[in-house]
Amino acid sequence: MKKEWIIGNGLGGFASSTVINARTRTYHGLLVAAPENYPGRYLMLSSLDEEISTNEETYKLATHKYPGTVSPEGFNYLSEFFQNPFPTWVYNPGGITVKKTVFMVRNSNTTCVLYDIKSRREEALLRIFPLVSSRDFNITTRAGYLSFTQEATPAGVEMASSNGFTFSLSSDLQYHPNPTWYYNLEYDAEKERGLNSEEDNFSPGYFESKIELGDFRFFVAVSTGDISSLTLKQVDKLLTREANRQNLLVLDSKLIDPFALKLIRATDTFVVRSHISDEDTVIAGYHWYSDWGRDTMISLTGLLLVPYRFEEARTILNYFARYCRRGLIPNTFPAFGGEPIYNTVDASLWFIHALSRYFAYTNDFLFLSDIWDTVVNIIDHYFTGTDFGIGMDSDYLIQQPQLTWMDAKIGEWAVTPREGKACEINALWYNALKTASYLGTLLGEEVSPYENLATGVVSSFEKTFWNPETNCLFDLVYKDETGNEVKDPAIRPNQIFAVSLPYTILPPEKEKAIVDRVEKDLLTPFGLRTLSRDHSLYKGQYHGDALTRDTAYHNGTAWPWLLGAYVKAYRKVNNYSEDSLENMRNLLKGFDMQLETAGIGSISEVFDGDHPHSPGGCIAQAWSVAEILRAYVEDVLEIKP
Question: Among 37, 171, 260, 591, which has the minimal tally of Cβ within 10 Å of its Cβ?
Fold first, then answer.
């Protein structure tokens, strides 16, 4: 029940559950749709419960958790699960083998489930019970708050919910109406997170067929569109088409390393086309995130450039550039297509970095010329000052409110205070200025103002942030209530970017000292801790209710995406030696096992800072996958522009 699978439909919708098909989250279901022209994602089909009856016994293949019990216990008949390229289960109940495969139709809110059945019995009866819902995927619902009407058709059944959604179930089996409610289904993961963990599901009826000696194939499909004419032959073609699309993604990457190819496959779920804006974008993490500017820019190289998906990279950069306001790239589109929110200081600086990586991979001068105004807009507004008090101080350093990536808040309380001048923001600022100077020179633009600002940053950065007592950087410099300058000596991973970015300020011996300090205090097998273990605020485990989790989120929890910067910095300060290459290869390939641990085939959002470093947060996180892939390909395999 701790191992989960997820597949996407290219629109932000998905299908997901555990490997024994016992749902443990409100987000689990066979169709979580991104309905056309409607913001958000909605659970339509929770599960398909298979039941095989013989003269002697009834075998129920489903698994549901209720308060204090599990019923039925279909996992007892499960002999195999694999996900290559699609989630597939093999059950062996009473002389019958049932192979069940789930896939989604690309760019459609449609899920298809294929059944390959081999029977060694003269006679049996197969019934498949759909459990449906019609709710926002973040919340649970009850029978009294939701109702359904149904209309049986030759292909299956048309469903309509009291909250205004319609969807269809289609099959080559015979449909029989039999309205039934399933009460008090319990979701363990939500219970652990201190959230609503019980709900009711509706079953409109069942699909049925006799099974005799031999081989049989059936399908059940669910969609928000018209699937009344769908046939088994068409389902097979859709399956082959989706498999070929995924295989082509691997071939286009030009990679042959097995670990890299696993990560290439993992990238695909995050790259989607918004059904609201009809633009390519990036889902930050599954199950619950939408598209985030910061995450997208950090992920762009690994998700799109390493796999040679240059057209999508270009459209995503253009998409976010179009929404740039007063130098700010949106932090998030909260409803997956809703109005953007701009409360981030670093997304714009990461945008300039992502653009430079796009140009390095493509030499696309035309696009660089088209988007250059966005670079100018960002730097001009960071220089003169923009919204939220973001802007350059008299010492050439950027100051900001509580808007860095360490942004957890409980009410108005900032769990990890970062208002002031943050070390990574100013490393990014310097990198953005030097990048703009380089790219602007290629375009024939006047770049001396950028060079002058960069020189100013150099004059202040080291003396402001260097801490001789810890031989690394202060994480934050700020003014207290009396106006006195305070320097935060907490050992955090943000300083690694002062070494890993293309343009850096510090002398080599201090860069080496930073990497040594990060390795000693923050490195785990699955990420960098967000705070050293000797700090009084350190939290080594990320679990429990929202308050408990938020206090640990950036105070000790380890983040895989930070390893991308660490690997690049480690190889740099060790002069790209063979030993440094092997050390980093071994570090990154530790994720090979993790790909089978939590979100099957993907990398989790976070891990505990304490041993055994259990995974937590989202089961599939874009920048976790992207930065591990990028670091492995660019810095270990040494394949880079």
Answer: 37
